[in-house]
Amino acid sequence: VSVPGPMPSSVADFRLGNNEITEIKVTDFENITNLQLLTLIENKISKVEYMAFSTNINLQELWLNSNNLKMIPRGLPIRLEKLYMDQNEVHDIESGLFGKDANLETLSLNMNAVRQILSDSFSGLKNLTNILLKSNSIQEIRSGTFTDMLSLKKLDLSNNPLKKILPNAFNDLPSLQDLDMSYQEQTNVSIAEDFLNGIKTVQSLQFMNSPGLAKSFLDLVEKNRGFSFPSLKVVNLEYNELETLPSNLKDALVSLEMMTLDGNPLECDRRLLWLRNWMKKSEIKFYSFEAPKCSGPKEVNERDLESLKASEFGEAPKSSKENNRRPAPEAEASSGNEMTTQRRQDKKPNTQLETSTETRGNIQRQQYNTMMQNKDATTGGTTTKIERVQGTKTSGQIEDNNNNAARKTTDSWSLLALLFYLYTVIVKSST
C-alpha cells in the first residue's frame, strides 16, 4: 500500500495512521509544502527514501511510531522540532544524521533495539531538549555521548541493560533537570568518577529498581564527602536491595524534597540513626506508598524506621562496619576513573522480606509495562534467588525428616528385640 495522493499544497495536518503503508518515497509528499504535522503511526513502513521529506520545509512534527524501520531517516527538514519513532527496530543512532542548523527539540526512540550511541550522534542539535531512549539495549554510555548539549532538559534511559558509564559521558549539561535511569536491573554497574559533576543541575533523579546503579551512585556520594547537589529535589531509590545509606547523603542533598525508599531491606542499626533523626526533623517525604521498614535486627523487624527510639538502634555488625558500602577489591584495582559495586553474596537472604519486595516490585513492573504498551521487560534475578533459597531449605527439611524416620525405625527394632529377649528369659525360668 502506498501513500494516497496527490494532496493540496495547503494541507497542514496529514494523518495516515493504521494503514498498510510499507514505504515512503520522495514523491509521496513533495507537493504538500505547507505540511506541519505528519502522522504515519502503526503502518508497516520499512523504508524511507533519502530526502523523502525535503520539500516539506514547514514540517514541525513527524510521527513514525510502530513501524518496521531500522534506521532514522536522513535528510529531515531543518525546521523539524519533534521526531517520534517509538516501537521500531532501530539498532544504531548514526553520526551525521542531523545538520548543524537542525532545530530538533524532541527525539523519541523508546522501545527500539538501540545498542550503542556514538559520541557524535547528537552533535549539532543545539536545541535538543528531550531524549527518550527507554526500553532499548544500551549497555554503555560512552565518553562524549551527552556533551555540550546546552538545551537538554530531560534524558530517559530507563529499562536498559546498562553496565558502564565512562568518563566524560555527561559533560556540560547546564539545563539537564530530569534524568531517568530506572529499571537498570544489572547488579554490577561501573560509574566514572566525574558522573556526579555531570548531573549537578538535575532536579529529578530516578534509580527505581536499579540495584547496581544505585549502589555505585551511593558509593560515589560517600567517597566524595563535601560534594553537594544544589538543584536535586527528587531522588527515587525504591526496590534497590539497600541495607544502609551513607551518612553524608543528607549533606549532599541540600535542596531535597522527596527521597523514596520503598521496598529496601534496611538494617536499622547505628548506621541509620542519622536517617531516623532526619525523618523526624524534616518535612521531606521518604516513601511513595509504604514507609521505610526495618528488615533487621530481628528485635525491630518490620517496624517503621522512623518510629524507633534512638536506644533501639544497636551496634552495626563488625563485618558491616569494615565493609559498609566499600567497593569490591577488584573494583579498586581497576581503572582509577571508575568504581564498581557488586551485590554481596555472602549474606543469607531474608526469604520473607525478599518475597514481599518481589511482590511489590512486580506490581510496580506491571504498571510500568502497561505504560510501555506491554513491551517485555527484563525480569531480573530476585525470583530465581528466592526459588533457589526455598528449594535448598525444602531439600534440607526432607533430608532431616528422612534421618529422623531412620532413627525412629532403629529405635523401634531395638525395643522389640529387648522385649523378645525378656519374654524368652521369663518362659525359660517358668519351665
Main beta sheet, described?
A: 11 strands, parallel
CATH superfamily of the largest domain: Ribonuclease Inhibitor
Unreliable spans are 320-361, 367-410
CATH architecture of the largest domain: Alpha-Beta Horseshoe
Given this structure, which CATH class of the largest domain is correct? Alpha Beta
Radius of gyration: 30 Å
CATH topology annotation of the largest domain: Leucine-rich repeat, LRR (right-handed beta-alpha superhelix)
Write the layout of secondary structure elements.
Layout: E1 13-15, E2 23-24, E3 37-39, E4 47-48, E5 61-63, E6 82-84, E7 92-93, E8 106-108, E9 116-117, E10 130-132, E11 140-141, E12 146-147, E13 154-156, E14 164-165, E15 170-171, E16 178-180, E17 189-192, H1 195-198, E18 204-206, H2 211-223, E19 234-236, H3 249-252, E20 258-260, E21 266-267, H4 273-281, E22 294-296, H5 318-323, H6 329-332, E23 338-341, H7 351-371, H8 382-430
Parallel strand pairs: 1-3, 2-4, 3-5, 5-6, 6-8, 7-9, 8-10, 10-13, 11-14, 12-15, 13-16, 14-17, 16-18, 18-19, 19-20, 21-22
Antiparallel strand pairs: 17-23
